[in-house]
Amino acid sequence: MVLKATISAFVVTILGLLAMLLTQDADMNLVYGAFCVSPYFLLITLIYFHFNKLRKKFNVFDKPNIAFEGIYSFLYYFLFSTLLPVLLFVSTLGDEYEHKIYADLGGVILEMFPLILILSIFLSLFSSITFVWGLRSWTALILTFLGYILISVLVSIFSTVGREIREAERERRDQADNLKEGRFEWAGAMSNPTGYPVQLYKGTFIFPKDEDYEFTFSEGNTVNYHAKWGEAGAETYKSMMSLPKAIDVTWYSFSENAFYQFHDAIDYNKLLTLFKQPYVERRATSDVEEHYDKIIFGFAPGGGLVIWAGGSGYRQVEIGHYQAKKIDFGQKVSDSKELVYGDLFNQEWRNKVLTDTMIIPLAIQIAKKNQPVRDDYWNKLRTAYTWNPKFVIAPEIKTYDVIFQYFNAERFAFDERIQNVTVEKRGIPQHIYIKWYDKNQNRCAVNFEFDETDVFKKFKAFFDRDKNIKAEMEIIVDTQNGRATARLKNAEHQLLLMETEIIAYGEKF
């Protein structure tokens, strides 16, 4: 009897602590805590199985009563479990650092109460059943322990499912709350034209309700490598936060040897409208719901600042164009010949950025040499007119996908299901790519790559006839002659922009 009771105490303690952990979303701290207190619970469990005076007094020793054992064991374990924080409080009185943890004894007990209650239930369940039935024989004891293992497995299954349901519900509520409060998961990114590197000196997001947030583009390089205007380079950390109603940014333009600062409101309402509304894009096998998750800051020579909202899919929309002011810090540039990476006031760092071919390609360095910095060019790229695309597609092409890329770095993608694209102010297209599969499932495409000088000249010539003129860009794909055309067209005029051949990629593509 003594041996069986001792073994039972060990098993009940281990399984009780394990079952308690299975009901929690336990991390290593909780597991470590359970391991540290296991000797205490082993001791009180040994006392439970070997202390029989009370049972004899109530005449429930020779013929144990399950009702008595259930109540007795729960009160016993609950009392000693609650006593544990008190013992820890007393034992740390001489250690100022450790005592701080348990100084608020009532708060500690309140915080531990769910664990105390769950552990007391499992220990009382396992102990009472074992004492009433398991100690009768070794066979009964082994069967009892196997039953406990099965119970632990079931507890694990139900706890996992319950946690997943609660987590999904909590996530749903959080999403609803974040949407209501205008919070989204997003990151900021910096962009600059090829050959005109910049570096953020200081940046602050100013939110409608939340506290201002000072940011750095810490997820990437200090300076963008292989930079391209409108493309996201170095990023901030992606996190759930509000959208900025204003920004305070200061940056250094290496090519101009100048600092610029912008501290003003941006188009918060346009950002909020875009981020609130997901959109659908077609992928190879199915449609995918995409959403905006990036705010790109484009720093141009002359202090121009363009802000885009970037999507998790292909879309990118300009939020606004702003003008920063040139400022003078008055801080002396170091004469040290030692390179200090990222130090804007270290001359060797400035020299490295301007001569590094990974940052400014050698051909551009040569072309720019002794040339003035053009500060109006990137504003010209934003030239927009009122037009919409219209597709005249060969009847045998039932499904197709279209990608528009504009000189102003906006992007848009759609397919044959969108028949009427709205007439609105749009930039001048740089690239239009249309793809489809023929009856033999071979990929085909039309690729319009517009020459910048030519297409800007043609748009200006067409639209300058009338300030309020509107037009369609009619794109005809004719599979019979293997060609496609793009032209501007309205009731009075039409102008051919480009003609190109249909690309047949073949069977192996």
Describe the structure in your own words.
The protein folds into 3 domains: 2-177, no CATH class; 183-378, no CATH class; 384-506. The mean pLDDT is 89. The termini are far apart. It is built from 12 helices and 22 strands. Helix 2 crosses helix 4. The protein is α+β, with helices and mostly antiparallel strands. It is elongated. A 5-stranded mixed beta sheet has the order 4-1-9-10-11. A 5-stranded antiparallel beta sheet has the order 3-2-5-6-12, with no helix packed on it. It has a 5-stranded mixed beta sheet with strand order 16-13-19-20-21.
Which SSEs are present, and which pair or pack?
Elements: H1 2-22, H2 28-50, H3 53-57, H4 66-91, H5 96-102, H6 105-132, H7 138-181, E1 183-191, E2 198-206, E3 213-215, E4 239-242, E5 246-253, E6 258-265, H8 268-276, E7 279-282, E8 287-290, E9 292-300, E10 304-311, E11 316-323, E12 325-327, H9 347-355, H10 362-368, H11 377-380, E13 384-393, E14 401-406, E15 411-415, E16 424-427, E17 429-437, E18 443-449, H12 452-463, E19 471-478, E20 483-489, E21 494-501, E22 503-506
Parallel strand pairs: 1-9, 13-19
Antiparallel strand pairs: 1-4, 2-3, 2-5, 5-6, 6-12, 7-8, 9-10, 10-11, 13-16, 14-15, 14-17, 17-18, 18-22, 19-20, 20-21
Helix pairs in contact: 1-2, 1-6, 1-7, 2-4, 4-6
Low-confidence segments, given as residue ranges, are none
Return the average pLDDT rounded to an integer. Answer: 89
Structural class: alpha+beta
How many domain modules?
Answer: 3
Q: Enumerate the strands of the largest sheet in spatial order, edge to edge or round the barrel.
A: 4-1-9-10-11
